[in-house]
Structure formats: structure tokens, C-alpha cells
């Protein structure tokens, strides 16, 4: 701070620490991997349920078909069920032998099986194999029984229908058919258990079944109603199989997740580096003194000579050459280096003006970014400049562009009011090109309006009226603001603007920007000359 201006390096910290950057990289690396695990976890469950549903569909429709076949065979006997057994037998035998899946067809009288397709006339109480279910209920019935008197080692599905004379017809389906079907569609190496239950009876193959079963492993639970009664099918999954599916999915998808993770890490790392390097480059440029200021003269129309200059920052990088101001100013704003950069600019201006001899009231225009304007540092920074240039005090003009929005307008207002009290003037730069022109007029005290080059360009030789430009001029005059026209390149533009009361003109017609030394030299020789003399001299 030997020259009274703040030290720019105090603001030059990176927005993220190294640890935070590393943490971001770790999170970015983990995100796709975790997402892959979660997706595979749920996908494995979905795959299991989908496959079990297909198996269940096959079982249910096949069981329904078997029941229907047996029932049709049984129904052909029902109308003649009151015949004596001898007369029924040939029919019973043919039906039982020709109907698929059917083991026997029997006729029941009261509670006793009295005629069987396989054994002829007999007398076996129903209660010996069907303790709970009786045909006396009235309607059709269906039950899974643990054994039948003739085949005690196997389960059987019995379906029946009452007939005239207190009789009933009953078809017996061997449980083995159902079991084989179940094993084929839902094998035990794929599923923990498949349960087929018929109205209240214990399940098919119940003796083998593992109990109790964890309900969370239930994959399918379906119920089917047939003319003979309803049955239910449940399929439970195997933990090992789910695990195998999960691993298979992970093996398929994980390489992609790893690749995505690597790509993201690389992108974020590059972004981090390019951001920090852009920031670093600007900071190194400040430290290595690669910036300098050029001054573009401002012509005072009523004074008839040079009445000021705009300070424009320049960056010449030793290895790359000149960087366009639009480019590095935007980068500095994005990387939040604009405040230290402007503080550096103020130092450079203070150094240039320490030896510059200018007329009293000379306007020295300096561009300030919105971030700086809303910062509490602004007044100190400008005051420091005012103190250093007090010997040959130029009139400081702060140019605020309205291309970028000012966020903290209250702080900005306070700053501008404090600085105006110190004699600083405020100019709205690029007026009419942003989206907040009128808001700015309402919020900020202003002394000058800078008409953007775009509006000046609407003046062509012979133009008598440029609607928007005229409106801006009228607006400025009604606000008592002085007008500066930027980018004036032709005499036609100059004459048009002067005729409408524009007080200052800046542009290539009068002079381009030049280094401090060149400007000092130019100012000594041409600074007091009228525009016509300057343009003639420049043209030579
Ligand atoms: P600006 O503030 O509108 O500056 C005027 C720009 O118009 C300058 O470009 C100047 O060289 C150019 N110019 C002047 N007269 C004419 C003309 O007759 N014809 C044409 N075609 N152009 C003319 P430059 O120096 O490239 O600056 C571009 C922008 O960069 C500036 O626009 C300003 O927004 C920004 N900038 C430059 N220096 C600084 C600075 O120190 N601080 C901040 N915050 N921004 C700066
Ligand atoms: Ca400007
Ligand atoms: Ca401008």
C-alpha cells in the first residue's frame, strides 16, 4: 500500500480450497457408481418378479386346463349317476381311460364311494381320504387330498359335482401331473418355493415345503377361479438367485458406470483447472505487471478542445500477445477477479497521472464493474485514487455499464452518493443496450449518459432523424445529464450530435486510445486544438 491504493492480492483467494476440490472430485466419482448399484439392486428384483410372473402364468393356465379337462369328463357321467354301478362302469372306464390327466372317475352315494372306473363296485367312506370336504355342500367342489385309498403315497386333486338321487360324480387327477408342471415351470433351483393351494386344503407337495417363509421373498401371489372352485399360486424367490441376477447386472453395467465416473471426474477436474488457471493467469498477469492503461481522448464540444479521456485497460501477455479487453474483463468478472483488477487499474492510473499535466476539470473516465460498485471497498479504492492524483486533480468520472445487472443496488447507491459528495461524477455507460436503463435512472444519481456506439451508427450521411437516438438525447437533456457520444467515426455523426446538444464526443474520428506516454505527447501538441485541426493532423 505504499502508494495509498489497496493491495489487490488480498482478494485473490480461490473460491474452493484444495480439500473441497478433492471432495467434489470424490463425490463426482462416486455418484455414477452408487447410482449403478442402486439401479442394479432394484432391477434384479424387477427381473426376478417378471420371470416369476411368466412362470406363474404358465402354471395357472395349465392347471385351469387340467381341471377343465377332468371336469368335462366328469360332467358326461352326471346325468346318468343314478344308474346302478354295473351299468355305469363301461362309461366310467372309457372316460377315465381317454380323458387326459384323469386317474379315475367315481360315483358317490351318500358319503360312500360306491362305483369306481378302476375298481368297479366298492364301498369306501369318503371320510377315509376327504375328512373335511363333502359333496353334500350342494355345488361343484374341488379339493387337494393327501392320498386316495388306492394310491396312498401320492396327493390327488379331486373335483366333484352333485347329481340326482343323492349321488355325486367325482374325478380324481393325480397330484403328480400338477407337481411335474410346477417343477417344469418354476424349478426349485430357481425359486425357493412355489405353493399351489386349493380352497382351504394344504398346499401341493406341502410336506416338503420350508416354513416359515419370509414374506419379503414373495414374488407372485395370484388367484384363479374356475367352475369347480378357486385355487391360489404363490412363488417365493431364492436369495442366491437374486444375488446372482444382481451380480450379473452389475457385471454388465458397472464398466459403463466406471467409464462415466472417469469421464465426469476428468471433466470436473478440467473445469476446476481451467477455472483456476483462468483466475491464476489473471492474477499472475497483475503480479507480473502485464497490464497497462490506454487513454482515449474525449472532445468537449463547447470547450472546443480535448476535455478528458477514458482509461481503457490493456493486457499484453508475453507469450500470447494482446488479449481483447472484452475477453479478459468478462473472465475477470466471472472469476471474481474484477475488483482486484480494477484496484490494480487505479494504481496504474495513479502512476500515469502522477506526471501528467492536464487542464483543470479534465474528465478522467474509469470503467467500474457492477461487482465493485456493490462492494464496500469501492469508496476506499476511489478515495485512495483521489488522494494520489490531487496535485493536478482531474475530474474523476465513474462509468457504470448497464450491460450487467447490479445486484446490491442499496450498497451501490450509498457508494455513489458518498463518492459524488467527494466530487466524483457518475456516467451510465452503454446506455440503452442493457435491460435496466430506466431502472438505473431511477436508482442511481447520474451526471452523464454515454450514448452507445450502436445508436451513433444509426446516423448516416444525410440523416435528419434517428428516432431512438433522438429519444435518448431528449431523455438525457430532461434529466439534466450531460451527453457523451461513443464511437463517433464520421463528420456526419459529429455534426448531427453537436446539433442536438451532445456535450462530449469520443471516437476514432477524434482519436484512438493510446498509451500514457503517447497520450501525454498528443495532449501537449493537439489537446488544445479544435476537432477539425486534430482530424487534419491525424489524416496527414
Ligand atoms: P467501453 O467502455 O464501451 O469502451 C469503449 C470501447 O469502444 C473501447 O474498446 C474503445 O476502444 C472502443 N472505441 C472507441 N471509439 C471507437 C470508435 O470510434 N469505433 C469503434 N469501433 N470502437 C471505438 P475496448 O478498449 O476494446 O474496450 C472494450 C470494453 O472493455 C469497454 O467498452 C469496457 O466495457 C471494457 N473495458 C475496457 N477497459 C476496462 C476497464 O478498465 N474496466 C472495466 N470494467 N471494463 C473495461
Ligand atoms: Ca466505458
Ligand atoms: Ca461504452
UniProtKB/TrEMBL annotation:
Keywords: c-di-GMP, Cell membrane, Hydrolase, Membrane, Transmembrane, Transmembrane helix. One of its GO terms (cellular component) is plasma membrane. Gene3D superfamilies: EAL domain. It is a multi-pass membrane protein. CDD domains: EAL (cd01948). The chain crosses the membrane at residues 22-44, 244-269. This is cyclic-guanylate-specific phosphodiesterase. It comes from the Bacteria. It is found in: Cell membrane. It is an enzyme of class 3 (hydrolase). Its main location: membrane. PROSITE patterns: EAL. GO terms for molecular function: cyclic-guanylate-specific phosphodiesterase activity. It catalyses: 3',3'-c-di-GMP + H2O = 5'-phosphoguanylyl(3'->5')guanosine + H(+). Its EC number is 3.1.4.52. It comes from Paraburkholderia dinghuensis. The keyword Membrane applies. Residues 275-527 form the EAL domain.
Amino acid at each position: 500500500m505504499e502508494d495509498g491504493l489497496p493491495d489487490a492480492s488480498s482478494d485473490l483467494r480461490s473460491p474452493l480450497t484444495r480439500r473441497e476440490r478433492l471432495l467434489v472430485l470424490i463425490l463426482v466419482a462416486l455418484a455414477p457408481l452408487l447410482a449403478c448399484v442402486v439401479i442394479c439392486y432394484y432391477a434384479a428384483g424387477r427381473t426376478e418378479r417378471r420371470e416369476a410372473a411368466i412362470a406363474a402364468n404358465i402354471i395357472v393356465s395349465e392347471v385351469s386346463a387340467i381341471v377343465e379337462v377332468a371336469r368335462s369328463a366328469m360332467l358326461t357321467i352326471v346325468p346318468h349317476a343314478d344308474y346302478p354301478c354295473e351299468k355305469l362302469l363301461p362309461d366310467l372306464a372309457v372316460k377315465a381311460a381317454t380323458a387326459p390327466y384323469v386317474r379315475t372317475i367315481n360315483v358317490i352315494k351318500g358319503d360312500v364311494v360306491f362305483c369306481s372306473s378302476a375298481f368297479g363296485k366298492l364301498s369306501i367312506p369318503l371320510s377315509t381320504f376327504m375328512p373335511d370336504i363333502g359333496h353334500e355342500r350342494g355345488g361343484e367342489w374341488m379339493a387337494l387330498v393327501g392320498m386316495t385309498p388306492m394310491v396312498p403315497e401320492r396327493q390327488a386333486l379331486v373335483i366333484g359335482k352333485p347329481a340326482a338321487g343323492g349321488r355325486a360324480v367325482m374325478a380324481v387327477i393325480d397330484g403328480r401331473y400338477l407337481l411335474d408342471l410346477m417343477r417344469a415351470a418354476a424349478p426349485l433351483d430357481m425359486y425357493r418355493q412355489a405353493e399351489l393351494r386349493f380352497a382351504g386344503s394344504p398346499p401341493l407337495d406341502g410336506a416338503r415345503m420350508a416354513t416359515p417363509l419370509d414374506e419379503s421373498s414373495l414374488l407372485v401371489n395370484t388367484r384363479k377361479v374356475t367352475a369347480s372352485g378357486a385355487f391360489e399360486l404363490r412363488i417365493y424367490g431364492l436369495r442366491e438367485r437374486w444375488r446372482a441376477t444382481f451380480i450379473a447386472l452389475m457385471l454388465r453395467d458397472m464398466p459403463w458406470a466406471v467409464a462415466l465416473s472417469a469421464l465426469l471426474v476428468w471433466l470436473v477436474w478440467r473445469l476446476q483447472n481451467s477455472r483456476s488457471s483462468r483466475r491464476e493467469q489473471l492474477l499472475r498477469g497483475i503480479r507480473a505487471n502485464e497490464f497497462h492503461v490506454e487513454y482515449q481522448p474525449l472532445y468537449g464540444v463547447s470547450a472546443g478542445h480535448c476535455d478528458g479521456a477514458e482509461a481503457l485497460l490493456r493486457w499484453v501477455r508475453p507469450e500470447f500477445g494482446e488479449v481483447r479487453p472484452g475477453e479478459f474483463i468478462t473472465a475477470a468478472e466471472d472469476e471474481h477477479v474484477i475488483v482486484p483488477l480494477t484496484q490494480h487499474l487505479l494504481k496504474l492510473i495513479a502512476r500515469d497521472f502522477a506526471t501528467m499535466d492536464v487542464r483543470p476539470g479534465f474528465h478522467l473516465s474509469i470503467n467500474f464493474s457492477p461487482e465493485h460498485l456493490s462492494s464496500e471497498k469501492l469508496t476506499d479504492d476511489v478515495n485512495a485514487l483521489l488522494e494520489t492524483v490531487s496535485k493536478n486533480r482531474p475530474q474523476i468520472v465513474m462509468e457504470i455499464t448497464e450491460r450487467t445487472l447490479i445486484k446490491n443496488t442499496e450498497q451501490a447507491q450509498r457508494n455513489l452518493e458518498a463518492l459524488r459528495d467527494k466530487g466524483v461524477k457518475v456516467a451510465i455507460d452503454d446506455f440503452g443496450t442493457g435491460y435496466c436503463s430506466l431502472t438505473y435512472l431511477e436508482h442511481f444519481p447520474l451526471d452523464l449518459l454515454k450514448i452507445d456506439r450502436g445508436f451513433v451508427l444509426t446516423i448516416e450521411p444525410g440523416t435528419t432523424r434517428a428516432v431512438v437516438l433522438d429519444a435518448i438525447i431528449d431523455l438525457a437533456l430532461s434529466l439534466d445529464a450531460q451527453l457523451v457520444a461513443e464511437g463517433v467515426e464520421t463528420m456526419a455523426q459529429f455534426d448531427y450530435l453537436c446539433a442536438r446538444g451532445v456535450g462530449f464526443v469520443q471516437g476514432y474520428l477524434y482519436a484512438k486510445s493510446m498509451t500514457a506516454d503517447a497520450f501525454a505527447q498528443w495532449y501537449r501538441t493537439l489537446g488544445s486544438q479544435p476537432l477539425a485541426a486534430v482530424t487534419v493532423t491525424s489524416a496527414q
